[in-house]
């Protein structure tokens, strides 16, 4: 296929857009929460990038690419959770292979997908861990909303982690409230800000 096949690229731009509307079906069984595959891929790529920057010899660009590619086939297969997979064949690898045939740079996409699935290279291990850390973070958010199943699910995902770095990060994820990055309960800046606002209104 010609490398300047813009028609194939434009078609794929539209196909990738389907991931914005493809739900992560595991949350249906959890009972709370909503997340699209595209949202999952974005945070996975960010996590993968940060982990790669903290890992000597890791190629950060490669990790990002693996993170982005690992669920691309779900635009065609949808996201099937473990119950679905038990009764229905998940042909995601076949879908990625078909996608690869339609793109000028398809071999790169297929090779990246295969690399991530095999979990043999350093970059693939980091990408796979980033995938799990994103899922665990999502579960922690649901736990803090009151979902009683979320912690047990997150603990199962924790067992899939491969790298020492991811195992350190996950401990902090469990210890950190999802709002801590903006809401400091010790400092109570949000209360002080409100007091200043009321004081300003009286003038």
Automatic annotation (TrEMBL):
The alphabetized UniProt keywords are: Hydrolase, Metal-binding
- InterPro entries named in the record: HD/PDEase_dom, HD_domain, YfbR/HDDC2
Q: Which reaction does it catalyse?
A: a 2'-deoxyribonucleoside 5'-phosphate + H2O = a 2'-deoxyribonucleoside + phosphate
Record SMART domains = HDc (SM00471)
Q: Which metal ions or organic cofactors does this protein require, according to UniProt?
A: Mn(2+); Co(2+)
- Kindly report, in one word, the top-level EC class recorded for this enzyme: hydrolase
What is this enzyme's EC? 3.1.3.89
User: Which cellular components does GO assign to this protein?
Assistant: cytoplasm
Name the Pfam families on file: HD_3
One function term, GO molecular function aspect? 5'-deoxynucleotidase activity
Domain (HD/PDEase): residue spans on this chain: 33-145
Task: Enumerate the SUPFAM superfamilies for this protein.
Answer: HD-domain/PDEase-like
Quaternary structure note:
Homodimer.
Protein's UniProt name:
5'-deoxynucleotidase
Q: Which organism is it from?
A: Candidatus Giovannonibacteria bacterium RIFCSPHIGHO2_02_43_16
């Amino acid at each position: 296929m010609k490398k300047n096949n813009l028609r194939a690229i434009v078609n794929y731009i539209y196909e990738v857009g389907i991931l914005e509307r493809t739900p992560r079906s595991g949350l249906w069984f959890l009972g709370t929460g909503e997340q699209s595959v595209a949202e999952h891929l974005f945070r996975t790529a960010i996590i993968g990038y940060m982990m790669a920057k903290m890992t000597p010899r890791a190629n950060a660009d490669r990790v990002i690419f693996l993170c982005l590619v690992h669920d691309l086939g779900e635009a065609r297969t949808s996201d099937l959770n473990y119950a679905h997979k038990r009764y229905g064949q998940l042909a995601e690898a076949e879908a990625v292979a078909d996608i690869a045939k339609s793109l000028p740079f398809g071999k790169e996409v297929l090779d990246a997908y295969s690399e991530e699935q095999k979990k043999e290279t350093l970059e693939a291990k980091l990408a796979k861990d980033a995938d799990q850390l994103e899922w665990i973070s999502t579960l922690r958010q649901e736990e803090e909303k009151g979902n009683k199943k979320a912690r047990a699910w997150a603990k199962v995902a924790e067992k899939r982690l491969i790298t020492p770095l991811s195992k350190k990060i996950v401990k902090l994820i469990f210890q950190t409230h999802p709002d801590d990055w903006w809401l400091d309960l010790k400092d109570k800046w949000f209360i002080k800000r409100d007091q200043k606002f009321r004081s300003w209104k009286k003038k």
